[in-house]
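Async update (no meeting this week)

Hi team, since we skipped the sync, here's where things stand on the single-chain job. The sequence we agreed to prioritize is pasted below, unchanged from the tracker. I ran it this morning and attached the output directly underneath so nobody has to dig for it. Comments welcome in thread, and please keep replies under the output.
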Amino acid sequence: MKSEITIKSRAEVLQSDKWDLSGLFITEEDWEKALVKLEKSIPDIQKYKGTLHKSANQLKSCLDLVTKMEIQDERLGNYAFLKNTEDVGDSKGQDRLSRYMRVTSIFGTELSFLNPEIQSIDEDITNSYLKDDSLADYKLMLTKLLRFKPHVLSGKEEKLLAMQMESRQTPGKVFTALTDVDMEFGTVKTKDGDIPLSQSTFGMLLINNDRSVRETAYKQFYSKFSEHKNTLASLYAGSVQQDIYQAKVRDYPSTRAQKLFPDNVPESVYENLVTVIHEHLPLLHKYYAFRRKKLGLEKLKHWDVYVPLLSSISTKYSYEEAVELINKALSPLGEQYRTILKKGLLEGWVDRYENKGKRSGAFSSGGFTGNPYIMMNYKETVLRDIFTLAHEGGHSMHSYYSVENNNFQNYNYTIFEAEVASTFNEQLVADYLYKNADSNEMKAYIIGKRIDDIIATIFRQTMFAEFEHEAHAMVENGVPITVDSIRAKYRELMELYFGPDMELEEESDLEGLRIPHFYRSYYVYKYATGLSAAIALSERVLKGGDSEQKDYLNFLKSGGSKYPIDSLKLAGVDMSNPEPVKAAMKVFEELLDEMTELMK
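Output:
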């Protein structure tokens, strides 16, 4: 008899399988009261407007009030967001989130005077403020804020720029509406029946073992992008022009300089990443040659790069067994880390399983109040879900240590650092599973996963980063973005990265017009630097002892108290030089050699 998998409604999910949000609010009525209280207190901010230059005590009084309100605002928002993800179709959850968004928008508007006013205070006065002990808790925040002073405009000019905020989002919003809603891709015939082709199913169809299915899905998908290529090119050109306009009016030398300025990341970090990856592209080409031969193909096509070389390993781990496996794998991080994480994973941090209406995927959502919550859709027979749980656990422990060791102003770390703590844990789980593998098949599977991760996160994201930088440089140098110019640039990079074993299609370079990350410019490189740092640090901790463990934990504890390059130096890796990326490439080479040997 054929067994059917049933998906529970939210009400049917056991309480023990849900996250415990009582650390945020015990009841929904408590949340309602807190929202009303926050909204009523918002006008209190205005009494400080125009007074922050008078004394350090006046500034402290203002910042104390704002901090108290920001903590409550974050707490309210986190609860509303998490409740909404439990069942995105639930009208009550949608209503709660909408009402929170209305209040936080009012809060943000009333608070908009604060940073420009602080930045406009006379330099002698701000220097005296930074030396005043009463403002010690705010010194780092103020120092970071004052860095932007050379790029701040007059009050009227800042207001005009603020009024443009919504219109600046138009290219990205239209891109999303066009590609996710308006485009109809049809269906693809498979042995399991006709499957609707969409942005979400496209990736699934590209790992189908039937090559004709992959080819059909690929050509059908990109034919729709070809129909809209002029619109898509115009949208991306508009996004790039908006970026360049913002950089120019704020007197940055380039868009890249502006985007890296908040994290205090030197542009050389970006350049080092691209340079090192270019030097190691022969390794990537070697992998694609290996893939072509293993698939028995004369020429590798773009639709052949994601299909697994190994069939999925058959495993079954209950959620509790997965937690125990992760606990053992993370032993190099010490008893305290493991105890806190294990308790959290088993006692209220995690919303474990799929239910009807629940958001797909996984995430960690840590705030200054409550626990660093994790959303999962855990499946016992999917080995990758163990890696996902370890990944999100890494984020959550980063949040845990950040909150425990910093005040509100300094606890929140940057995206540049965030991907280190998560992918670090994946490296340790892979190492544990490899060392305890009972077959060459399992070893090959683990190695294959690590190879796939490096290709997807370091090589591919670096190619994306290189493309968006060259697109911005084109316009900054007076070369307009057109369909032909942007496709030519992307094709050039595809040929460079995929190498001689890849035979590209006429439509292959349309991929450059479908990546949503490009509407958040100079962001994707952080994935590549993050995994590079994680690989280097995991090797350091695995081969080291108490000192290396302590260094890594000090990085987690630093939160947002330092700029990301400096916080990673605490862990023992210097991302301002190319060595960590080179080390990651060395690991990739070793993995590829072992994979080749295992699959002979």
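Quick observations from my side:
Residues 440-476 form the longest helix (37 residues).
The chain has a mean pLDDT of 94.
Reply here if anything looks off.
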